[in-house]
Amino acid sequence: MSERILLDTGPLGEVAHPRAAKATAQWFIAMLRADCEVIVPEIADYELRRNLILEGLHESLQRLDQIKSELTYLPIETSMMLEAARLWAQARQHGKPTADKHALDGDAILAAQAKFAGAIVATDNIGHLDQFVETRKWRDMGFPRSGVP
Question: Which CATH number fits domain 4-75+118-141: 3.40.50.1010, 3.40.640.10, 3.30.830.10, 3.40.50.1110?
Answer without folding.
Answer: 3.40.50.1010
